[in-house]
Amino acid sequence: MIWQLDLLILTLVVICGIGAIMVRDLLGAAILFGAYSFMMCLLWAIMGAVDVAFTEASVGAGVSTVFFVSAVYHTTRRTKD
Amino acid sequence: MKILGLVIVALVGSVLIYATVDFPPFADPESPASLHVSPRYIEKSLDETAVPNVVTAVLADYRSFDTMFETTVIFAAGVACFLLLRIPRRRPPGPRHFRHRLTGLTFRVKDGENGKEIFLPLREFEPVDSVWTPHDFIIEKVCRYMIPFIQLFGLYVIAHGHHSPGGGFQGGVILGAAIILLSVSHNLRTALKRMREKTGALCSALGVFIFAGTGALCLALGYNYLDYRALAALLPGGPIMARSHGMLLVEIGVGVAVMGTMVWIFKNLASLGRYDEGL
User: Fold this and answer.
1) Which residues fall within 8 angstroms of residue B32, CB to CB, at 6 or more apart?
2) Which of A25, B90, B107, B279 is within CB 3.0–4.6 Å of B270 for a Cys-Cys bond?
């Protein structure tokens, strides 16, 4: 485990997580959430949990992003609050 | 209200962070989980089940009840999306769009008198979505050639889950994502031609049935529920290999259920339950 890489990815996870909440554009939030999932996937892989990383990559970064995008597609892209 | 929410979030967060102090450190050999549970699986699982991937052995054999109900949860999620979103009504009245197959020209067709639908010959015209209709040759062809390889990889992930990372969940999601890619790159109707709504729903239920049926088969052969040693009476290779084969059966069930459910949920979400047009 390289701690510099770990720290970098952890920082990116936090930034993506906060960004997904703060951003006004719902499509952007969905994509940021996908990026968050991918960073989490990298973290799982670093920790040696390869099966969990695989699940996170396929479910979190892949299919759930598509679900979010297809849900945003049917609503307005701007949030009210 | 917002400030109250922030205060609650900060309080709960600080309590959670305070609680993590009691956790054993990362990879501590003295932690309770590493003392009894993990060594048992790491040392014995290869001898008992003939499966090198310990994670698969734990998920599909030792803790197969958990996995069975996880599959049921996924099935329930699919049913919930279906019940919430599916609209049996036909499409709302309004102009529709058709593309002439040979020239690529798009036509806007209004309803006839008394709201009667005008049908263009589908051999020459194809219906297109009214909101957003990209028709990109390169994307369609590239995705069309990628999809078989994605599906092959999904099957590999399911079948090879005993020896490498992977298994039913991941492979099923990859198989479902291939159909979703077809829908995103072409349109929903193309994906529906390949996998109808009923097929998705049926796969979803069939996967859970395969999983539960494997357990019931073990019960019928005189062993405990989901004790795959019972399958040695039906499959070659003795009771240890029977556990490995039983896991493969169960993983196939999980894969089929997850694939069906992912496609089912996506189609309901993308078309708002109308199944005519969507992402």
Assistant:
1) B24
2) B279
Residue/partner pairs of B46-49 with CB below 8 Å, 24 or more apart = B47/B240, B48/B240, B48/B243, B49/B240, B49/B243, B49/B244, B49/B247
Helix, strand or coil, per DSSP, at residue A78: strand
Tell me if ipTM is over 0.95. no
Q: Given A53, A66, A73, which is nearest B180 (Cβ)?
A: A66
- What's the per-residue H, E or C state across B41-59? HHHHHHHHHCCCCHHHHHH
Residue A4 CA to residue A21 CA, distance in Å, equals 26
How many angstroms separate the CA atoms of B5 and B108, rounded? 50
A58 contacts B269? CB cut-off 8 A:
no
Q: Count of CB contacts below 8 A, A vs B? A: 51
Contact (CB<8Å) B279/A71: no
Q: At what angle do helices B238-270 and B137-159 cross, to 10 degrees?
A: 150
- CB-based contacts of B25: which residues, under 8 Å, 6+ apart? B31
The torsion of the CA quartet B50, B56, B57, B61, rounded to 10 degrees, works out to: -120
- Confirm if B275 and B192 have CB atoms less than 8 A apart: yes
C-alpha dist (Å) from residue A31 to A14, A69, B253: 15, 8, 31
CB distance B262–A63 less than 8 Å? yes
Q: Name the β-bridge partners of B97.
A: B108, B128
Cβ–Cβ < 8 Å for B94, B115: no
- The torsion region of residue B105 among left (phi > 0), alpha (psi -120 to 50) and beta comes to beta
Res. B114 pLDDT band, cuts 50 70 90: low
pTM of the prediction? 0.85
Mean pLDDT of chain B: 85
User: Is residue B128 classed as helix, strand or coil in its secondary structure?
Assistant: strand
The residue extents of the domains of chain A are 11-72
**Contact assessment for residue B216 and residue B64, using Cβ atoms and an 8 Å cutoff:** no
pLDDT tens digits, B160-180? 888 888 888 999 999 999 999
Mean pLDDT value across residues A6-18 = 92
